[in-house]
Specification:
This protein is an alpha+beta fold and 310 residues long. It has 8 helices and 14 strands. It folds into 2 domains: 2-119, no CATH class; 136-302, no CATH class. 31% of the residues lie in helices and 25% in strands.
Length: 310
């Protein structure tokens, strides 16, 4: 089995690729690669790109088994979760390539290739639905009205996000939202907290940061998962997860005892804090870091991006 892999696009736009002959690998690595291919779900050629695919990291993968070549070409939004471990295995071994780096042609016809659907938004919605179970689901639609100050909105109808562990994150009707839970310096990265694919995640994140009935670390992790559920690509979702975790709201829930009519009652006390806001240099360094490094979401809470600040 021979595999050719090419990664392109994203913030940096660099080409990285690798060619692997499984017979040349050590036995343990060969077994791991074969396991990843078997579990990838790539059994026939397929080409899928989201509406904004040109702005996202793109993957082109060719698997050659005794002359039968199947190809997968997609952007990070349309990458199936079952295929992600295989792509991560290959990306970790990829090196910078020149534009003449070529992949073998598929020997079968890629289903779904050819002209894009007339309604690209409908196609993107179908892609999101296909992978929603990996990242949870949203309940309802975001319906809100602008307030007179032009900065805040009020939810008119209830909305909620159910995360992959089936924990429910409600945003009740009447909740006030303004995007302030996302550091404003990063709005240039996402185009505004209520724009496009970030909207649903921003709403439930705003409300959770206002209610503060769960640990702040869990709230910011929920934001990342809700972003992915909404169709945000992995690189941008991890960038924003880092942003809210390291620069977003924080709080600690303590307990204190008060006496009411001579009887003790325990009530929660929320101690809020806000880290110093990021500088423009911070934002640039963070965006560049995620564009050029493979980072697991689980590592973001302890990750410190070098050379930020000043």
């Amino acid at each position: 089995m021979q595999i050719t892999f090419l990664q392109s696009g994203g913030f940096a736009g660099a080409l990285r690729g690798v060619r692997i002959d499984s017979l040349a690998l050590p036995e343990r690595q060969r077994a791991e690669l074969e396991r990843l291919v078997a579990g990838s779900g790539v059994h026939a050629s397929c080409e899928r790109f989201s509406e904004s695919g040109r702005d996202r990291r793109q993957y082109d993968l060719a698997i050659d088994r005794a002359g039968r070549v199947i190809r997968l070409s997609c952007d990070e939004t349309c990458l199936p979760e079952a295929t992600r471990p295989l792509v991560e295995f290959l990306a970790a071994r990829a090196t910078p390539q020149t534009p003449d780096f070529q992949l073998p042609e598929a020997t079968d016809t890629p289903p779904g290739s050819g002209p894009a659907p007339e309604n690209a938004a409908t196609f993107l919605g179908e892609v999101r639905d296909a992978f929603a179970s990996d990242w949870g689901r949203f309940e309802g639609e975001v319906v809100a009205r602008w307030e007179n100050d032009g900065r805040q909105m009020t939810l008119v109808e209830p909305f909620a996000y159910v995360d992959p562990r089936l924990a429910r994150w409600p945003a009740a009707a009447g909740s006030s939202i303004d995007g302030a839970s996302i550091p404003r310096a990063f709005w240039t990265v996402i185009g505004g907290p209520f724009a496009g694919e970030f909207r649903n995640a921003s709403v439930v994140h705003d409300v959770a940061c206002d209610v503060r009935d769960r640990p702040w670390r869990a709230v910011h992790r929920m934001f990342y998962e809700a972003c992915r559920c909404g169709g945000v690509g992995g690189i941008k979702a991890k960038t924003m997860y880092y942003a809210v975790f390291h620069f977003g709201p924080r709080w600690h829930i303590e307990e204190r005892t008060i006496f009411v009519a001579g009887k003790p009652h325990v009530e929660p006390v929320i101690r809020a804090e806000m880290p110093a806001p990021p500088t423009e240099a911070d934002v640039a360094a963070i965006v560049n870091y995620f564009a050029t490094h493979e980072v697991a979401a689980e590592d973001i809470p302890i990750l410190e991006i070098p050379d930020t600040g000043d």
